[in-house]
Amino acid sequence: QGQLVESGGGLVQPGGSLTLSCVASGFTFSTYGMAWHRQAPGKAREWVAGTTTQGSIKSYADSVQGRFTISRDNAKNTLYLRMDNLKFEDTAVYYCATTRDGYWGQGTQVIVSS
Questions:
Q1: DSSP state of 104
Q2: What's the CA gap between 50 and 61, in Å, rounded?
Q3: In the 8-state DSSP scheme, what is residue 31?
Q4: Which mean pLDDT values do the consecutive 10-residue runs of the chain (114 residues) have?
Q5: Which of 52, 63, 65, 112 is deepest in the core (most CB within 10 A)?
């Protein structure tokens, strides 16, 4: 049974940075495309960024393009999301997920506040 565990969330001021991590287990991580999603209070969950199995192709939502960077280390079974120049509207619970078979993490909270 596949599992994903996120970490790295927290409270940060506008303009600050955070790096989220997502550790995978129970499945062959390197054969899965991966993505980050987020859900802000009172809003629907939205896709943030995605990457292919070897990390060669990355894509981003327009709202985070140029500020967020998705990456992966297949040797460590870990997915990352580097978030720079954070804005109030980036406040959300962030989830990592596989792009097939429906594995999701439990989420990590990011709060951007002054």
A1: B
A2: 9
A3: G
A4: 96 98 98 98 96 97 98 98 98 97 97 97
A5: 112
- Measured at the alpha carbon of residue 78, what is the angle toward residues 74 and 82, in degrees to the nearest 5? 115
Tell me which amino acid residue 63 is.
S
Per DSSP, the three-state class of 102 is coil
What are the angstrom distances between the C-alpha of 68 and each of 1, 36, 46, 100?
A: 30, 11, 15, 23
- Residue 57 Cα to chain centre, angstroms: 15
The residues, any chain, with a CB within 8 Å of residue 92's CB and separated by 6 or more, are 38, 39, 40, 41, 43, 109, 110
Reading the block at residue 42, the tokens are: 């009172």
Determine the Cα–Cα distance for residues 97 and 83; give it in Å rounded to an integer: 17
Amino acid at 11: L
What b/e string do you get for 55-77 counting C-beta neighbours within 10 Å, with b at 16 or more? beeeebeeebeeebebebebeeb
